[in-house]
Design brief:
Elements lengths: L12 H29 L13 H12 L9 H6 L14 E6 L4 H10 L5 E10 L4 E4 L4 H10 L2 E7 L1 E2 L2 E2 L1 H9 L2 H17 L4 E5 L8 H17 L3 E6 L10 H4 L5 E5 L16 H11 L8 E6 L2 E5 L5 E3 L1 H9 L7 E2 L7 E6 L2 E7 L2 H13 L4 E5 L23 E2 L6 E4 L3 E5 L5 E7 L5 E7 L5 E5 L10 E5 L5 H11 L4 E4 L1 H6 L1 H9 L3 E6 L37 E4 L2 H4 L33
Parallel strand pairs: 1-2, 1-16, 2-4, 4-7, 7-8, 8-9, 9-10, 10-16, 18-22, 23-24, 24-25, 25-26
Antiparallel strand pairs: 2-3, 5-6, 11-12, 11-15, 13-21, 14-15, 17-20, 19-22, 20-21
Helix pairs in contact: 7-8, 10-12
């Protein structure tokens, strides 16, 4: 064992290392001290706060911008195989000025009547291909639509898709693509006959979610279908989605047979996507330039959107119209809305009973910008998606020599807007125009700032419950035998319900009416089928009882109980407002825009 101690350092190496460590530590400490002293000597400067009349406005704009979600760009294989095309043609007229028509929306017909002279074509949902084995289903057409089309001299292009009851059915299309030639020809002849009998000028095929492995068979079927339709003097139009479904389409081959491609340049972000632009200008430009590299630009009709989505914090967004967006903005003080570079996509956020919403929509300015860009490429025309949801100024932007001032006034049309969810309604019938400042930016694009939102007739919906909630309603009482037992059970279980009583029964059993109210249930009263809501007088403010109405009538207070809700006697009339208001577009109490039927760009392929 060595005699050296544990801490012996005969060579002084440890001592040198100690001094090196000490010197370095001192230098670091000195630097930190100098920096600390400098910080203390700096005069603090606070940036001025954003001096806005309503700080909530800045918050809303920030929320909507930070949560925006870019859409899908054209795939690389599509870009590589197309020819290069630049917008070098002079601005000119467009032969096709089409618009999609949705039969379930009464506003769609109203808009068609107002804009028929601006259009050349209308595209109604006319046929569906679905079920197994596949069958071709004809959708019933509104006689009023047929009358407007004939009176205006419009050409009607029937929309044929594979969406039945809100569900895409690619298996039906794929089965048809596997069919023998004689079976496919039989389908084509059947379609041609239905088109001719319906006075259509042609058909727009919009088949989505079809496996791209059927790409060759799809091209073959379209060539045969074009041959049959052309023999009947009918046109074949083909919808071109922007997203995954485009892989099904051999655009070079199809260009040899179809009359028109319709590029669906909207729904950059849709029902299955996070909040974001519906058709931002860069996204629109990119897809337009790529798609027009196939076929002749005069074959292309460019689909341009004019509608909106209201995204809640959780759940599926609601499809809304431009006027609905304006009503929401008008009801949220301090809302700031712009259509400006780079996206030219108007949007805002609002809060409804503690729940945040984001609204993205397309207006007349975004519509005009996209029309002008398409016009420069020399395309055949445009197709508005869709009638009934558009900015009322949108189709007016098709006219040449428009100025920013022509789009600046925000009118308040005689059309009801909707806010909220549920079947308990409050209606405000007020009108006041708004305005937006529209100006030309550098180049061809216009921008706008909404300065005052229009005041619009609005139906406020409330009472929507949780998805797993159940509402209990008892009709046509009170009944001396059953109503007491029902009330006993509800009281025992601690459950509240609604009782819609008949006026004559309520007059006979006022004590039961009083018990319904005293135990916390909702009391409603049926209207007679012939009665109008507009004709129901309010209850006397003095509280004096009014004579009970005849059987089925609305009546007044019964034993001091005033009904909170009115309900019509016939189910077909239960959800329609009475009086003159019922004849106005959009007043249907359960009216909502039909579910958007275009394939979401972010939707995954099925397995």
């Amino acid at each position: 064992m060595s005699g050296k101690g544990v801490f012996s350092d005969l060579t002084c190496k440890r001592w040198g290392r100690f001094w090196l460590w000490a010197i370095l530590t001192s230098l670091v400490a000195l630097s930190l001290g100098i920096g600390f002293i400098q910080v203390l000597m700096v005069t603090p400067r606070l940036a001025l706060l954003d001096q806005r009349t309503n700080p909530e406005r800045a918050l809303h704009a920030l929320i909507a911008t930070e949560q925006s979600h870019p859409g899908m760009s054209p795939p690389s294989w599509l870009e590589k195989s197309r020819r290069t095309l630049r917008p070098t043609l002079p601005n000119g007229g467009m032969d096709v000025r089409a618009a999609f028509y949705v039969g379930q929306d009464p506003n769609s017909l109203h808009s068609l009547k107002e804009n028929a002279t601006r259009l050349s074509h209308v595209i109604p949902e006319a046929f569906y291909l679905g079920d197994m084995p596949p069958r071709l289903v004809t959708a019933p057409q509104n006689p009023d639509l047929i009358e407007v089309v004939k009176a205006s001299g419009l050409k009607s292009i029937a929309l044929l898709n594979n969406n039945m009851e809100g569900v895409w059915q690619p298996e039906a299309v794929e089965t048809l693509l596997r069919e023998k030639p004689e079976g496919q020809r039989s389908f084509a002849e059947d379609l041609a006959n239905r088109l001719s009998n319906g006075d259509y000028s042609g058909v727009l095929i919009d088949w989505q979610q079809v496996d791209p492995v059927y790409r060759p068979q799809y091209s073959t079927l379209m060539a045969m279908l074009a041959s049959v339709l052309h023999a009947h003097k009918l046109e074949l139009w083909l919808a071109v989605p922007v997203g995954l479904d485009v892989k099904l389409l051999d655009l070079d081959t199809l260009a040899e047979t179809v009359d028109h491609f319709l590029a669906m340049l909207y729904d950059e972000n849709g029902e299955d996507d996070p909040p974001g632009p519906l058709a931002s200008q860069p996204w629109f430009n990119q897809w337009l330039e790529v798609l027009l590299g196939y076929g002749d630009p005069k074959q292309w009709v460019i689909g341009i959107g004019s509608y909106g989505y209201d995204w809640p914090e959780k759940g599926t967004p609601e499809t809304i119209g431009f006027l609905d967006a304006m009503a929401r903005a008008q009801n949220q003080p301090g809302t700031a809305v712009f259509t400006r570079a780079p996206s030219y996509s108007p949007h805002f956020s609002y809060n409804d009973r503690g729940k945040n919403h984001q609204v993205w929509f397309l207006d007349a300015i975004s519509f005009r910008n996209q029309v002008e860009l398409a016009r420069q490429y020399g395309v055949a025309g445009i197709a508005l998606y869709r009638l009934g949801t558009e900015d009322p100024k949108a189709l007016g932007a098709l006219a040449p020599n428009q100025t920013p001032q022509t789009l600046s006034v925000l009118e308040s049309p005689d059309r009801f807007t909707h806010i909220g969810e549920g079947d308990f309604l409050r209606v405000e019938n007020a009108h006041s125009p708004g305005r937006r400042k529209v100006q030309a930016d550098d180049g061809e694009l216009w921008s706008t700032e909404y300065e005052q939102f229009p005041v619009l007739p609005t139906v406020y919906h409330a009472g929507a419950g949780d998805p797993d909630a159940v509402a209990i309603s008892f009709d046509d009482g009170p009944d001396p035998q059953w109503t007491p037992d029902i009330l006993d059970v509800l009281k025992e279980k601690g459950v509240k319900a609604s009782f819609f009583v008949i006026g004559s029964q309520a007059a006979l059993y006022p004590d039961l009416v009083r018990r319904i109210v005293d135990e916390g249930h909702e009391l409603g009263v049926h209207l007679h089928p012939s009665q109008s809501l507009a004709g129901v007088a309010p209850a006397p403010e003095s509280g004096a009882e009014r004579d009970p109405a005849p059987a089925g009538g609305a009546g007044g207070p019964v034993n001091g109980a005033v009904p909170a809700t009115l309900q019509r006697g016939q189910p077909t009339q239960h959800h329609r407002g009475g009086g003159a208001a019922a004849e106005r577009p959009g007043i249907g109490l359960r009216h909502r825009y039909p579910k958007h039927r275009h394939h979401r760009l972010g939707q995954a392929r099925r397995g």
